[in-house]
Amino acid sequence: MFKLQELIRRDIDKLAMNITTEQGKTLKDAHGDVFRGLEVVEHACGMATLQMGEYVPNVSNGIDTYSIREPLGVCAGICPFNFPALIPLWMFPLAVTCGNTFVLKPSEKDPGASIMLAELAMEAGLPNGVLNIVHGTNDVVNAICDDDNIRAISFVGSNIAGMHIYARASAKGKRVQSNMGAKNHAIVLPDANMDAALNALVAAGFGAAGQRCMALSTVVFVGDSQPWENKLVERAKALKVNAGTVPDADLGPVISKQAKERIHRLIQSGVESGAKLLLDGRNIVVPGYEQGNFIGPTILSGVTADMECYKEEIFGPVFLCMKADSFEEAIDIVNRNKYGNGAAIFTTSGAAARKFQTEIEAGQVGINVPIPVPLPFFSFTGSKASFAGDLNFYGKAGVNYFTQIKTITQQWKDLAAGSGVSLAMPTSQKT
């Protein structure tokens, strides 16, 4: 793992260019994709400490008990298109340093980064057969779910696919960790620092063209939203939409024609349901890429919880504005949503921040932080409909996920001559 992180650093420009070429995100964003994955590789370098068990000597007369963590065997990962380096690096470095072999299925839309990472892992000295890449779609996913040799599956993607995998693989007795859809909210209180909050909202809402499970896609303004919405539109209009390889591009294209059409449909459904279109990015044309799958920053205001554009994860550069008359109402709006990946608050009040972190029902909470994804020594802690399983990705939970615990109770003592057989239930004093 130490060698692998060195090689990823060496080839980060090549990896980023591959991601931009296949997936479309800007080069700067692609570098971030690799870098955040690199942090998990560095986390895996501490596996000797992370895997340590527990030991209690002489728990009874001459008896010691200790626990060890052992690998499961064969594990698998099924990856989405939006982070071609980050998500595979969430999975296989931890799995193999825990002693497992790994079968990785990258997205069929952009598998190049996974192949490059596997080549780097081989160059770093990972033995043949430890990391295996398979390609395909539904049939391959079902084969992974059904294969008796595979003990655990990691998945990141949509709720439909995630719940299918969770149900099918769990029925076969496998462990599953499934990170799925999201509708991440920000609550903006009137006392928030306007400049800082607006910059954060624009970056978190439109970065990666909105194609990330921690995109901050919905904002709930407490009180008068008009000044905020006007400035939000102003800043969103300044963003540059272009091919990801263009140096000053802020947003690249979305992943496919089908994704573009779906995003267009959800925007239109919002308009037809009564939302106000403050900024429409559907008709954008990028010179030289007229047939590209580009969508410009789009902002809908007056959105309510019964609208399809709110209930569905849009997964595009579309920002929804909602209003609440009170902080309590804003918290209620967020908590009534079925998803629970992340939520953020923008405020200068410590009391409000404390109330928010205590009462909000989301796994990852940001206080003046728009995308609160923790560093890998913590875990990615999505909840509610955003996660299925018992143990989250990376961190201590990830180590526990890729290992099974074994306890050993041992006795080394001379038995007294003539000791008879006792069939009574042993107690801690008499064992």
TrEMBL record:
Record carries keyword NAD: yes
Swiss-Prot/TrEMBL keywords: NAD, Oxidoreductase
CDD domains per the UniProt record, alphabetical: ALDH_F6_MMSDH (cd07085)
Gene3D superfamilies: Aldehyde Dehydrogenase, Chain A, domain 1, Aldehyde Dehydrogenase, Chain A, domain 2
One Pfam family hit: Aldedh
NAD keyword on record: yes
EC id: 1.2.1.27
Family stated for the protein in its record: Belongs to the aldehyde dehydrogenase family.
Protein name: methylmalonate-semialdehyde dehydrogenase (CoA acylating)
Organism encoding this protein: Hevea brasiliensis
High-level lineage: Eukaryota, Viridiplantae, Streptophyta, Embryophyta, Tracheophyta
